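User: I'm new to structure prediction. If I give you an amino acid sequence, what do you actually give back? Let's try with this one:
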Amino acid sequence: MSNNAKQMWQIVPTTLPGFINIIFILILFIVMMGEFKVSWSKGTVIFFSMTYLVNWLGIFAGFFIENAALASANLQGRYLSPFMFLFVPFVQNLGRKFNFTMSDKAIKKLSVWTIITISILYLCITFYRSYILHVTPTWTNNA
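Assistant: Good question. You get back a string of structure tokens that encode the predicted 3D arrangement of the chain. For your 143 residues, that looks like this:
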């Protein structure tokens, strides 16, 4: 799968550097931990996490069956982003275990400013790549 397997967790646009994606996922998990104090059963946590991995495997298998050459090139988080909610029970259990708390105001500010920052970075980088460097957009480069 070469380097494309690293994109399993890619949520932010692919034109942004990888560390932006890591920061976004960390902030997402911090917000999930601090939002509610809920205790989920161990079975629910395992079932939801396995559902994410089964979806990942199914998406990969679907691409592989269709075209083996494109399978690893299309193994990206854009197909799995909607399934990120399946990690909510796991992360909320961690928040309850470590007694992690945040105020509602802090959660709102963190969430809103993260999305605003990522959107601005995306616009700036896309403009820079397109109009200054004259780089072809990533969505036109199929493997």
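You can read the tokens as a compact description of the fold. Here is one thing that stands out. The radius of gyration is 18 Å.
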